[in-house]
Amino acid sequence: MGNSNSVSLPDLAATQALANRLSAALRAGDTVFLTGDLGAGKTTLARTVIATLCGVENAPSPTYTLIQTYEGVKGELWHADLYRIEQAGELDELGLEDAFGDIIVMIEWPDRLFGLVPDDRLEIHLEMAGDSPGDAMDTPRRARLTGFGEWETRLDDI
User: What is the pTM of this model?
Assistant: First the structure.
């Protein structure tokens, strides 16, 4: 069913620190699902991982391109945003199924995978945990990390 733990993210620096720990734990073939409401910090977390592993600062959100690909110190990394996917057939063109197990894949809105879910994956659910102090990026958040398959034993690495 998955091994789970929660992490308090009081500010942007804490979200970036979580992303840095995730970057250190990731290896080729890993799949990470990023879930949460709009503005919960999914893209911020992904961008920090991309900056850390691939040296790309301010990576664009793949909202319209659906997938952005990068080369990094741990091999290829794909960042996917499936928010605009409406039918399972649209996934065929993206090649995600072929990527699972070979490259690092980070997916926002994985509920739009229509059952195309790898057994080995890390799910990170981000949610607001308080009122914004003025800067939306510094609104306290909470992350629930759930590991499936081999990630059940790797959660302690993050």
Answer: 0.91
